[in-house]
Specification:
There is one protein chain. The chain is of the alpha+beta class. It has 2 domains: 3-204, 3-Layer(aba) Sandwich (Peroxisomal Thiolase, Chain A, domain 1); 208-350, 3-Layer(aba) Sandwich (Peroxisomal Thiolase, Chain A, domain 1). 36% of the residues lie in helices and 26% in strands. It has 10 helices and 13 strands. It has helices at 18-28, 33-42, 63-88, 112-117, 138-152, 177-185, 242-260, 278-288, 296-305, 312-321; strands at 3-10, 14-17, 47-50, 96-103, 127-132, 157-165, 188-196, 208-217, 225-230, 233-238, 268-273, 331-338, 342-350. The longest helix is centred in the N-terminal third of the chain and has 26 residues, at 63-88. The chain starts with a strand and ends with a strand. The model has no long low-confidence stretch (mean pLDDT 95).
Length: 351
């Protein structure tokens, strides 16, 4: 299986406290003040990074304008991430055999990994894997798909680039509960992960090994989460049934995954979980019958950055790599959920 060498993140420059967001949203939608107060206060988010100053979001009236901004900011953030990986690891860029890029908040053709190949001296035979439409799932799903490649190419390295600029999907005319929740919960961010195969020279010094992975698809749940494509851009679809699905299905699927690998919850020392929101994290802890503190890094990420969709779990992974109290050989569970509705799992081991 593959080894995780390093995870890095980068965020837009505009930092907005939740108190500022509350004030701005109340000015735009004064008749929604009670709902705005309720959702802002319940998110546990303290601040978020956004692509644009708050007063610019009222002018995002068409898909083209949004996407020009998305492409420019996505390229800037991923150039920063890739340079950081090159500076902070001993990777030889010619060793990278695959670049995967994931997003659900903007479009680029050629896709983002191709644009990055024009910014750095990657080998011309580097394989590309653009991933679109997985939403919050894509952080773990992307790592797992890169792992699949490295199992077949154990001497190679690979990059996963994750870019989610959720604020660019804001819809001024949409006063639905889903848009209110999204506007108070989601932030902008990006991440990149360097992985290597088990025959690569950096494998021996990597902090985590991927032991095994699992994908779970829940039929007929496509309206739980996603986007409707409308004239002005992406319109959020978000159901309040997600915690119930976590309670009735996800916990059971995680237990089945652990049983299949002949381990139990007691063998899991840490969780690298996508921080979808307070209700999801609380329900996960209750369903798995584990203490809320097991998700401390996820709660911290949510408070510092909001839900940055698939980039959130990369931040939690970055924090986990830096944790001194995760001991060698200790098992951990990386997980995310997202549109379809689907669950992605990865059993990892501290090296």
């Amino acid at each position: 299986m593959a080894y995780i060498v390093k995870a890095v993140t980068a965020y837009p420059e505009h930092i907005v406290a939740q108190s500022q967001a509350k004030e701005h949203l109340t000015k735009m939608w004064p008749h929604k003040k009670n709902s705005i107060d309720q959702f802002i206060d319940s998110t546990t988010v303290k601040k978020r990074h956004l692509c644009l100053p708050l007063n610019y979001y009222g002018d995002l009236n068409d898909m083209g304008k949004r996407n020009v901004i998305w492409k420019a900011e996505a390229c800037r953030l991923q150039k920063e991430n890739i340079q950081k990986l090159l500076d902070e690891t001993e990777i030889n860029i010619s060793d990278i055999g695959l670049i995967a890029s994931a997003t659900t908040t903007g479009l680029a053709v050629p896709s983002l990994e191709a644009l990055m190949m024009n910014q750095f001296p990657f080998a011309p035979d580097t394989k590309r894997l653009p991933l679109f439409g997985m939403g919050c799932l894509a952080g773990v799903a992307g790592i797992n798909r890169v792992n699949d490649y490295l199992v077949g190419h154990p001497e190679k390295a690979a990059l996963l680039l994750v870019t989610e600029l959720c604020s660019l999907t804001f819809q001024l005319e949409d006063e639905s509960i889903a848009n209110l929740i999204g506007t108070t919960l989601f932030g902008d961010g990006s991440g990149a992960v360097l992985l290597v195969g088990d025959k690569h020279r950096l494998a021996q010094a990597a902090p985590f090994e991927i032991v095994t992975t699992e994908s779970v698809f829940y039929p007929d749940t496509e309206r739980l989460m996603g986007w409707d494509m409308i004239e002005s851009g992406f319109k959020l679809v978000l159901s309040n049934d997600i915690p119930m699905l976590v309670k009735t299905q996800v916990g059971k699927n995680i237990e089945q995954f652990l049983n299949k690998n002949k381990i139990s919850k007691e063998d899991i020392g840490y969780y690298i979980a996508h921080p979808g929101g307070p209700k999801v994290l609380q329900t996960l802890a209750e369903t798995l019958e584990i203490h809320k503190e097991k998700f401390t890094l996820s709660w911290e990420s949510l408070a510092q950055y909001g839900n940055t969709s698939s980039a959130s779990v990369i931040n939690v992974l970055e924090k986990s790599i830096a944790m001194p109290d995760i001991v060698p050989q200790q098992l951990g569970l990386m997980m995310a959920m997202g549109p379809a509705f689907s669950l992605e799992l990865s059993l990892v081991k501290k090296c």
